[in-house]
Design brief:
Heat Shock Protein 90, Schlafen_AlbA_2_dom, about 35% helix, Schlafen_AlbA_2_dom_sf, Methyltransferase, Cobalt-precorrin-4 Transmethylase, Domain 2, ATP-binding, four-stranded mixed sheet, alpha+beta, six-stranded mixed sheet, ATP-binding protein, 16 helices
């Protein structure tokens, strides 16, 4: 039975003024070679036209788009003793997930071939790439300008542009997405009509128009503004932020709190931070003139590390999402995917994100800091609170940031002291300064009479080739990272 969306799609295609580079009408021409070449040509043309799919329709006259019906049954066609679809798939490269759909149109039977646009390389049939130009289907290599333009548009799959919910009504969109949160966070007035709301949601690629006057919610729209991620399939619902608190220092301890996030990252971010902050114990922080009670972990460090985990995760890894774990002596924030930048260069290296659209929108909403400053602020906050240095790890296809609870210099491990020294040198360097014994003493909260303790840490960092003298002729003039 024909479902409503394919029929609506066919009606929208028939309503176009004529064939497009990504759309072709056929009567009953079912030549297998022709179909293979058209799949290549239409797929490549769709990418050039910024379309997600291309289409062929059998049972339609080219001129007036009248439905004349077709008896073409691809499932029963065989070529060289092979099923037609298998024969085509064997000759297409890269693999193209094309699909045939039988449409029971009121005016006759129509067959729809849906062809995904090229993604990583031009689609070839029998080792030749084709392109659609007018009604012709020449070899792509004969048109080098078009080939260059196609390569410029090809890129790896961008998760944010994927479809989270397809062919939904405008009412369903507004019921599933916290659109008022979007306007509040982007500091835009809420439009007084539905068209205005959808114009903005579409401009931000949170939704895209589907056929038949309906809409698709993108992965970007769902992951940022879903009212309940469980209303989407498990590819998305499993990416909700999970929080677990233990009553000890390891995962064998009893779980005292567990929260599985259901809201989108943007609309739920403030509530998540408030929930975690309310659970944190307080610690006495000694300022220049007075003592104050503050939370164990600097709020800006928690905020930035959680935002980074959301932005930089590998969304293509299924069945897992960001995880925040609170132990008695530390907080661990883990996201799926190896980091794109080496952990020891998180402070100074230009940031790289797998999810650029999500990162850009979250920065506009001030959920995270300006590009490239978040980790700097995390490390600087740890120094201000005189905490052990944060630890950034790449482990088992995941990235983990560890915030350690307050500990005196005497109680820090050798590795922690050396890591703090290296991070301090990097912070000074990116600020146009150099690390000195006196600045590192201040970072650790060590009195001048105990400067020898800091000198030992500096020597150990030099021995591990993490820092070097800023001026080899004057070794006591200060230190910089070894790569500086």
């Amino acid at each position: 039975m024909t479902t409503s969306r394919p029929l609506a799609l066919v009606n929208d295609l028939l309503a176009l003024p004529g064939e497009q580079s990504w759309l072709e009408f056929k009567g009953n021409n079912t030549n297998p070679q022709m179909i293979g070449e058209r799949i290549s040509a239409l797929s490549n043309a769709a990418r050039l036209a910024d379309k997600n799919h291309a289409y062929m329709l059998w049972g339609v006259q080219d001129g007036d788009h009248a439905v004349i019906g077709t008896g073409f049954q691809p499932s029963s066609e065989r070529v060289q003793s092979q099923p037609l679809e298998f024969w085509l798939s064997q000759r297409l490269s890269p693999d193209v997930a094309f699909s045939f759909h039988e449409i029971v149109h009121p005016d006759g039977r129509v067959l729809l071939l849906e062809i995904p646009a090229a993604t990583v390389a031009p689609v070839e049939f029998d080792r030749t790439a084709y392109i659609r130009i007018g009604s012709a289907t020449p070899r792509l290599s004969d048109y080098p300008d078009r080939m260059r333009a196609l390569w410029a548009k090809l890129q790896p799959y961008v998760w944010e542009t994927g479809i989270a919910a397809q062919y939904v009504t405008s009412d369903e969109v507004l019921a599933r997405l916290d659109y008022t949160s979007f306007f509040e966070l982007t500091q835009q007035p809420l439009p007084d009509n539905r068209n205005g709301i959808f114009d903005r949601l579409q401009a931000e690629k949170l939704v895209i128009a589907d056929v038949g006057g309906r809409w698709n919610i993108t992965n970007l729209g769902a992951i940022l503004f879903a009212k309940n991620l469980d209303e989407f399939d498990t590819r998305l619902s499993r990416k909700g932020v999970r929080f677990v608190a233990y009553d000890g220092n390891n995962r064998a301890a009893n779980v005292v709190r567990r929260q599985d996030g259901k809201r989108g990252y943007a609309s739920g971010f403030k509530g998540l931070i408030e929930y975690i902050s309310a659970l944190l114990p307080e610690n006495e922080h000694i300022g220049q003139a007075f003592r104050t009670e503050t939370v164990v972990f600097p709020p800006i460090a928690i905020r930035e590390l959680i935002a980074n985990a959301l932005i930089h995760q590998d969304m293509t890894i299924q069945g897992t999402g960001p995880l925040i774990e609170l132990f008695k002596d530390r907080m661990e924030i883990t996201n799926p995917g190896e980091p794109l930048v080496s952990p020891d260069r998180f402070i100074d290296a230009p940031p790289r994100s797998r999810n650029e659209a999500m990162a850009a929108l979250m920065r506009r909403m001030r959920i995270c800091e300006e590009q490239g400053t978040g980790i700097d602020k995390v490390v600087a906050a740890a120094e201000l609170y005189q905490l052990p240095p944060p630890d950034f790890q790449a482990d088992n296809n995941a990235t983990r940031a560890v915030l350690l609870a307050p500990r005196r210099f005497a109680d820090m491990t050798t590795d922690e002291r050396i890591r703090a020294c290296q991070q301090h040198a990097v912070l000074k360097f990116v600020s146009g300064e150099v690390m000195r014994n006196s600045t590192l003493r201040e970072r650790f909260g060590i009195e001048p009479q105990n400067a020898a303790q800091v000198s030992q840490v500096i020597r150990a960092a030099l021995d591990r080739n993490l820092i070097r003298p800023a001026d080899p002729e004057r070794p006591k003039a200060g230190y910089v990272p070894v790569w500086a």
